[in-house]
Model the fold of this input.
Amino acid sequence: MGLNNFFCSRTTQVFEERVSMKKFLITIDGPAGSGKTTVSKLLAKRLNYKYIDTGALYRGVAFETFSQGIDPELETDLETLCDRIDLKFEITESGLRLFSNGKDISDQIRTPEISMMASRVSAKPCVRGCLLGLQKKMGQEKCAVFEGRDMGTVVFPDADVKFFMMASIKERALRRFREMGPDSSQTLEEVEQDMMKRDANDSNRDIAPLKPAPDAIKIDTTHLDIETVVNKMAQLIEAK
Done:
């Protein structure tokens, strides 16, 4: 390793050690396709923090709602479901996985049908109440990056650092389409239409609508690569 590379590597290491020593609770909100999942994971890894995908929790409820044939508009049935559902994150050889009542549902919750169902059930007070306590408990010890849609506005309004990520609808749809792979049953246009519909549902719902917190740092990722976004976030956290 040359001297320049050595000093560059050492400076980065010291920088990350200083950041990771701070016990912060960090929230990253934003719409689908804004890049928040990838960025949240990488940022948590860099800081040696826990990564919590709160959207997966709502997808877990949506999956059980769909699987059990429950009408999401019947709140009494949803309340019964929430009373008996047991969602847990576990670290496995495949990474962080979501389990519902002991069953790994990590792959099943990523379908277009579950995405739309998650948008519907997340607007229900009984579902939000059920998951609110769980999320707050996860954040008690801080040293965590929480990714979601209302982390900085509702769940953790006093978070130490809040980010809100966004990107153009065209770019977000393209990212999601590529993520789905060549075996996807949807066209790019269909992905974009579904995304626009979910944006409208999430942004216009009465309870915890998708919006940046007043003190959130907004980052438009349309023309930014992942490394640039993560570096920018890390620098802003270090400045705290």
In short: Residues 1-12 have pLDDT under 50 and may be disordered. The beta strands are 25-29, 50-53, 87-92, 95-100, 103-104, 144-148, 161-166, 217-220.
